[in-house]
Specification:
Layout lengths: L2 E6 L8 H10 L9 E7 L2 E3 L5 E3 L2 E7 L8 H5 L5 E3 L5 E3 L9 H5 L6 E3 L4 E3 L5 H5 L5 H5 L5 E5 H7 L24 E4 L2 H5 L6 E2 L2 H4 L2
Parallel strand pairs: 1-11
Antiparallel strand pairs: 1-10, 2-5, 2-12, 3-4, 6-7, 8-9
Bound molecules: iron/sulfur cluster (3 copies).
One iron/sulfur cluster binds next to helix 3.
Keywords: 4Fe-4S, Electron transport, Iron, Iron-sulfur, Metal-binding, Repeat, Transport
GO molecular function, one term: 4 iron, 4 sulfur cluster binding
Protein name: 4Fe-4S dicluster domain-containing protein
């Protein structure tokens, strides 16, 4: 049964509490991040002949980890079967089978898997599968002070967000089109994200994201 994240883009302030809670929970150093926040911005300022200034500038944030995609690119390229979908629908690498080849890191359009340089094995968000198995939510969801994140099966998310779920999309700029992997990511898009569909925006924190 597919499980994934609901993300309310209208609420997210880009505070990064989700990303830091994930780091803390997994005891990650600065070089590792299962969840990251994309800052996206666009538009410009225009000075009119009379000296007045008008702007159509916009900006928003996307909190992103692995989307536990229905058509996961990472599992398709893994030569050993280490990158797999578990019985709860979550996608993660089995360390005992991973050979550290890095194919999964190249296949994922969301840059979710990375090679752990200490272990020389693939490493990525596993949906906090041990917490989920115990009936808890992933640590990032629990930590968000704006309640911008949720996690569950598609049915659970639709039930918990009855007024928003039907309006969700699986992709906003600059995420890849949903056809790439059918991500289990349901985004309630902000007006700024709808404005960005014009295609004039850019990622503002490329260095932070390692892009
Ligand atoms: S987001 Fe990337 S790592 Fe996660 S399931 Fe999809 S393709 Fe695999
Ligand atoms: S790094 Fe590990 S999980 Fe990724 S494709 Fe190679 S064997 Fe599979
Ligand atoms: S903790 Fe919540 S509001 Fe803050 S960046 Fe993460 S999703 Fe956005």
């Amino acid at each position: 049964m597919p499980r994934g994240f609901f993300f309310d883009n209208t609420r997210c302030t880009g505070c990064r509490t989700c990303a830091l809670a994930c780091k803390d929970f997994h005891d990650h150093g600065p070089e590792q991040a299962f969840r990251r926040v994309i800052d996206y911005e666009g538009g410009s300022w225009k000075v009119a002949d009379d000296g007045t200034v008008a702007t159509d500038a916009y900006g928003y944030h996307i909190s992103l980890s692995c989307n536990h995609c229905t058509s996961a690119a990472c599992t398709k390229v893994c030569p050993t079967g280490a990158m797999h979908r578990d019985t709860m629908g979550l996608v993660w690498p089995d360390m005992s089978r991973c050979i550290g080849c890095g194919y999964c890191t190249m296949a994922c359009p969301y840059h979710a898997p990375a090679i752990d340089q200490k272990l020389k094995r693939s490493s990525k968000c596993d949906g906090c599968h041990q917490r989920v198995a115990a009936g808890q939510t992933p640590i990032c969801v629990e930590a968000c002070p704006l309640r911008a994140l949720d996690f569950g099966t598609t049915g659970e998310l639709a039930e918990r967000h009855p007024h928003d779920f039907d309006r969700c999309t699986r992709s906003i700029m600059p995420l890849p089109p949903k056809e790439a992997t059918t991500p289990n990511l349901f985004v309630l898009a902000s007006p700024a994200a709808r404005r960005a569909e014009a295609g004039d925006g850019r990622i503002a924190n490329r260095e932070e994201l390692g892009l």
